[in-house]
Specification:
Blueprint: E1 9-12, E2 15-18, E3 28-30, E4 38-43, E5 46-52, E6 56-61, E7 64-72, E8 77-79, H1 83-86, E9 91-93, E10 121-126, E11 138-143, E12 151-156, E13 175-178, E14 183-185, E15 194-196, H2 228-238, H3 247-253, H4 257-290
Parallel strand pairs: 2-3, 8-9, 14-15
Antiparallel strand pairs: 1-2, 4-5, 5-6, 6-7, 7-8, 10-11, 11-12, 12-13, 13-14
């Protein structure tokens, strides 16, 4: 085997070098450069290359580093990514990934980053099928339409054939977490900490009350109870009780359960005072009649 400067193939100390005059690493050592020299496998118009440059090792489709595997010099592994992105991560995948078995992440402060660079949704899908046709599916998606409108969406029983993954029955996202922390169930734009577009079934609901805000103050000696003539005048003018929201206000703003329960109890307690007053007047009139 030739071993001189005029030959691309060298034999030295029982080792073979290609482009290396004195190979010392392994039985076969190949010297390449930043232009993609290395080992090439071709089949017709198809070309696969194994090569490296001063920083990384590549297995690529042609010379395109975004269509292959990159091993960064510090140990990062990229599929479909060039080296600039791998400097932050040990594994970077550009595209859809499929895991047939468990995916385990060990250690503290470790996570999986799913990066969305377009105005669409990207995330994790759970399915009864290896392809997108599985109907028994669920998905956790991140939507980055705008910085102010980032949302994390959860879908269940989804129909993948639609433009977005939505619940196949209600045609809505099952659960949405907006970028301000608000949560929506059955609604994609929650306007409260928890917004539910549908029926809520619960065995018990507790609403906290601010100290001193519960209407037992109606029975205080200094409570200003309106006389019935004032109440009648208010009703004739407004068509609802004092302190009670109007029908129009409820239709526009909804019903605040805590406030409404407090107001209703206030009216019951006021009504009790009116009844006590009337009972006293009735007893006084009876006393006069009996005389």
């Amino acid at each position: 085997m030739p071993n001189n400067s005029n030959s691309p193939l060298y034999y030295y100390n029982n080792k073979v070098g290609i482009g290396v005059l004195t190979p010392t690493h392994g039985k076969l050592q190949i010297f390449g450069n930043d232009s993609g020299e290395g080992i090439a496998f071709s089949y017709g118009a198809y070309l696969t290359k194994i090569w490296r440059n001063s920083a990384n090792f590549y297995i690529t489709h042609g010379d395109n580093v975004t269509k292959g595997i990159t091993i960064y010099k510090d140990g990062g592994l990229g599929v479909g990514y060039s080296s600039s992105f791998l400097m932050k991560y040990k594994l970077a995948i550009n595209g859809t990934s499929y895991f047939a078995n468990n995916l385990t992440i060990e250690g503290s402060n470790k996570d999986i980053l799913i990066k969305n660079t377009s105005e669409s949704e990207s995330g994790i899908r759970f399915s009864d099928s290896q392809d997108v046709s599985g109907l028994q599916s669920a998905k956790i998606m991140f939507n980055s339409n705008t910085t102010a409108d980032n949302k994390l969406n959860f879908y269940i029983g989804a129909d993948y054939s639609s433009t977005y993954w939505k619940n196949a029955t209600t045609n809505k996202k099952a659960l949405t977490i907006a970028n301000d922390g608000k949560v929506g169930i059955g609604t994609e734009n929650p306007q409260a900490e928890l917004a539910v577009n549908g029926t809520i079934l619960a065995k018990e609901v507790r609403v906290s009350v601010t100290d001193g805000d519960w209407p037992d103050y109606v029975f205080s000696d200094d409570y200003q109870l309106k006389n019935l003539n004032e109440v009648e005048g208010f009703i004739n003018e407004n068509n609802h009780l004092p302190d009670v929201p109007s029908a129009q206000a409820m239709e526009e703003e909804g019903v605040d359960l805590a406030k409404m329960n407090k107001v209703l109890l206030q009216k019951v307690e006021e009504l009790t005072l009116y009844m006590i007053q009337q009972q006293k007047e009735i007893e006084a009139l009876k006393a006069k009649v009996n005389k």
